[in-house]
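Hi R.,

Here's the chain you asked about this morning:
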Amino acid sequence: MALRFVGIDPNTDTGQCPTVWVDENNADVVLQGWKADQATEAECLETGSIPDTEAVIRIPVRMVQILREACDAAEQRARTEL
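And the predicted structure, written out as C-alpha cells:
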C-alpha cells in the first residue's frame, strides 16, 4: 500500500489529529478522525448497523478543503487506471 498524505487538521498542536490520505494503489480515501461519541453513534445506528470492522469518526468542518483535495486526488488516480 502506498498512501499519499493530503492533509492534517490545520489546528493541530501535537500532530495527532484528524488526517487524510489517498491510497495510490486503489484511490481509496483513508481517514483518521476523532472517535464519535455514543450519542452520535446511536443516531448513526438508526440507519443501519456498524460492523466491528468499521467505526464512526468525526472530521472537523475546517478540514473540508483537505477532504475536497483528497477526493479530487482519488478521482484523478482512479481515472488514470481506467
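The longest strand covers residues 3-8.

Let me know if you need anything else.
M.
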